[in-house]
Design brief:
Order of helices and strands of chain B: HHHHEEEHEHEHEEH
Shape of chain A: globular
Shape of chain B: elongated
Strand content of chain A: under 5%
CATH topology of the largest domain in chain B: Glutaredoxin
CATH superfamily of the largest domain in chain B: Glutaredoxin
Radius of gyration of chain B: 35 Å
Number of domains of chain A: 1
Number of domains of chain B: 2
Strand order of the largest sheet of chain B: 5-4-3-6-7
Oligomer: heterodimer
Number of strands of chain A: 0
């Protein structure tokens, strides 16, 4: 039993070493605070460690899906928090230097649009723009590879529509 | 069409490109690895979350009990109720006999009623035996809970001059009572009561009422409401 646990630990660590950088970057694209993105990336690997089923076979695809979902969830949480703070007229806490550096206005706009469209579509766009091939995106989101093209097109249209609605061309 | 699609592709890619993380950013691998080792070695977050939730709930309950008198009274009542239930249903431990002292006992009012077989039953004719007289009805849930205990008492003590008598207060008489006592295999005599008998034993207003009558025909104990099985057993044993 102890040997088994040690084995799992070892496997987790080698997967971690191979994938951590990529997973942290996926999350950092949507989460403005990088320290927070790193924290969340570790959480993704802990989920993998607890979810034994995901470990056999397609661990990589699973990691991408969970990473992109975790990032979007955090984005949603942050957006909500900002809205409440503004709504309640709280004294706006001054942004950390990290935030100023990370969140340009255009980045914030794109993130808000991603937050507004359907989560499935946002996941698809983020994974695709991360440089994943169609078959990799399909594996990560458990979709039929043949339908990825169509779904991606629809997601792009939704993104464009929402973007133009908010900020114009 | 294809041109449009390509255009859209490029347009969206350009927008999403602003999210690209600067190439100079390197996530801190050693710090993350240390955190991973630490977290995967400790009990799972979910387990800990449960622990926290349980602790917080207990705390909240305690605080509200301490702060507000109403929940305190309610909690006391709940505790009493559950203690009584446990005593009756779970733990048939030694009961506590609570009998009227012999010098204060009054003679049980006599009556004659007819049992299910059509035979008259006269209370005074049973003098010399310990009697358990139970007023009940088929529509009374508390009464029905007691019946299995009385069946057991009858079986256990009938060889030692002990008799259970059931007096039903059903308005429908035998039409309601006979099917019930047949179904429950009631092993003691059951009669249909009347208002006069019920009144003298205090069973006109409430049910169930259980009266224990000693060998001299005097009332040794009177329980209004559901009896405690273990107390009742202790009282019977004392009287025998």
């Amino acid at each position: 039993m102890v040997v088994k646990a040690a084995e799992t630990q070892f496997d987790l660590e080698s997967t971690f070493r191979a994938q951590y950088g990529r997973i942290a970057r996926i999350i950092a694209r949507v989460v403005r605070d990088r320290a927070r993105a790193e924290e969340l990336a570790v959480e993704v690997f802990l989920k993998l460690w607890r979810n034994r089923q995901a470990q056999d076979g397609q661990a990589e695809a699973w990691l991408y899906r969970v990473a992109v979902r975790t990032g979007l969830n955090e984005l949603r949480r942050q957006t909500r928090q900002t809205r409440y703070e503004r709504l309640l007229g709280f004294v706006r806490r001054s942004p950390t230097p990290e935030e100023i550096h990370a969140a340009t206005e255009e980045q914030a706009n794109v993130r808000l649009v991603l937050n507004a469209i359907a989560p499935r579509q946002a996941e698809l766009l983020l994974l695709r723009s991360q440089g994943l091939r169609y078959d990799e995106v399909a594996a990560a989101l458990a979709l039929d590879p043949a339908s990825i093209g169509t779904l991606l097109r629809r997601a792009q249209q939704a993104f464009r529509k929402e973007y133009i609605k908010r900020y114009g061309e | 069409m294809a041109n449009n699609a390509a255009h859209l592709d490029v347009w969206v890619d350009q927008r999403l490109a602003v999210l690209d993380v600067a190439g100079d950013w390197q996530p801190n691998m050693s710090r993350a690895l240390a955190r991973l080792r630490d977290r995967s070695a400790s009990p799972s977050g979910r387990g800990r979350a449960w622990l926290w939730a349980a602790a917080a709930t207990t705390m909240a309950v305690c605080l509200s009990l301490v702060t507000f008198p109403a929940p305190r009274a309610l909690a006391q009542r709940c505790l009493n109720c559950s203690a009584a239930l446990l005593q009756n249903f779970a733990a048939p431990g030694p009961g506590h006999a609570n009998l009227i002292p012999e010098k204060d006992r009054k003679p049980a009012p006599d009556f004659t009623l007819t049992d299910a077989a059509g035979q008259p039953v006269r209370l005074s004719a049973l003098r010399g035996k310990v009697l358990l007289l139970n007023f009940w009805a088929t529509w009374c849930h508390g009464c029905k809970a007691e019946i299995p205990w009385f069946i057991e008492f009858q079986r256990a003590y009938q060889s030692r001059d002990f008799v259970v008598l059931g007096v039903s207060r059903d308005d429908d008489g035998w039409k309601a009572v006979r099917p019930y006592i047949n179904a429950k295999k009631v092993n003691y005599r059951v009669m249909i009561g009347n208002d006069a008998v019920a009144r003298v034993y205090g069973a006109a207003e409430m049910l169930p009422v259980t009266v224990l009558i000693d060998k001299s025909g005097r009332i040794a104990a009177k329980h209004a409401g559901v009896v405690s099985q273990s107390d009742c057993r202790a009282e019977i044993e004392t009287l025998l």
